[in-house]
Amino acid sequence: MFKQQIQSALTALVLVCLVFAAKAADRPGSIQIQEESLTIAGIQNNYDFLLIADTHISLCDERDPALLEKAKSRREAFEKESGKIAVRTFHSLITDAVKNDTDLTIFAGDITDSAMYASIEFVQQELDRLDGPYLYVTGNHDFEYGEEYFSKRAYREYFPRLKSLTHTKEQFVIYEYEDLIIAGINDKNNQFEKNAVNALLPYLKGKKPVILVMHVPLQPQEEHSALEQQADDIWGLSKNGRCRVLIGETACKPNRTSQKLLDAVFAKDSPVAAVFAGHIHFYNRSMLNASSEQLVTGAGYYGDAVRIRVRAKA
């Protein structure tokens, strides 16, 4: 009985802390918006996008009792590293999107740190504040659950929890304008799901310009690129001596299905003008090849994001 009372008291304390954390979102959080301009041939209209990733919202309540301690530990680790409270910065990032009348708010994965109900509901409440549309792809944390990390069970049982955020049960999402396509694809342990790739290939082999959104950035075709060197310095190499946080031939090597998508992106006549990504927790803008760029946002739990003003190429 005494043990149960102690457990109940601890659970109550955790819940009180979560309430205070959620209420903290009502106060401003410090954010840093990187301003970028991107010109794209073949479009007639101008667009303003806000790119957000890696906010790692880690809220948990009694609906996910097994994850209470892990969520608390992860939340405290992010706060200690950044000196900021993730719910505050997320609230401020959404406020920025509203204030600047963003045409499309783009979420490039790891918005939630796990598929916990409290985290998902907090994010949903914030997204409901947006006046305009948004596009949401998942990363390597959004629907992990305890020990279920990219397991079949995680896809089967926990990915569906995110449907209100992703607006789909599929592993891809499309937002199409009259002259531009924004195509998002979910991360699947540094690979892409077969049905998602097959669904995107017609767009990636079409004529209309495409911006491709994913969580893990692509390895530039330039050998020993500055992006890859910085990623290796920060994250270290895999046990096989590969870059651990990019997808590419000498990084996280694509399987046959993922390679189909990469072949379409890097084709000489590819309509892909840019790739937007996150995952590496630092900002980078660089050329993927001679005709396409990649913009990677810093970590959202630091308050980092990128405002990208897309303009028609004269």
Strand coverage percent: 15-25%
**Structure classification:** alpha/beta
Encode the helix/strand succession as letters.
HEEHHEHEHHEEHEHHEEEE
> How many separate helices?
9
Helix content: 25-40%
Global Rg: 19 Å
Largest sheet descriptor: 6 strands, mixed
Overall geometry comes to globular
Terminal CA distance: 75 Å
Look at the structure and give the mean pLDDT: 91
Strands side by side in the biggest sheet = 5-6-7-8-10-9
How many beta-strand elements? 11
- Are there runs of 5+ residues with pLDDT below 50, and where? 9-19, 22-26
Oligomer: single chain
Plain-language structure description:
Helices cover 34% and strands 19% of the residues. It is α/β, with parallel strands linked by helices and 314 residues long. The strands form two sheets. Strands 5-6-7-8-10-9 form a six-stranded mixed beta sheet, covered by helices on one side. Strands 1-11-2-3-4 form a five-stranded mixed beta sheet, with no helix packed on it. A hairpin with a 4-residue loop joins β5 (172-176) and β6. α3 (86-99) packs parallel to α4 (117-127) and α7 packs parallel to α9 (256-266). The protein is globular and about 50 Å long.
What can be said about this structure in brief?
The chain is α/β, with parallel strands linked by helices and about 325 residues long. The protein is about 35% helix and about 20% strand.
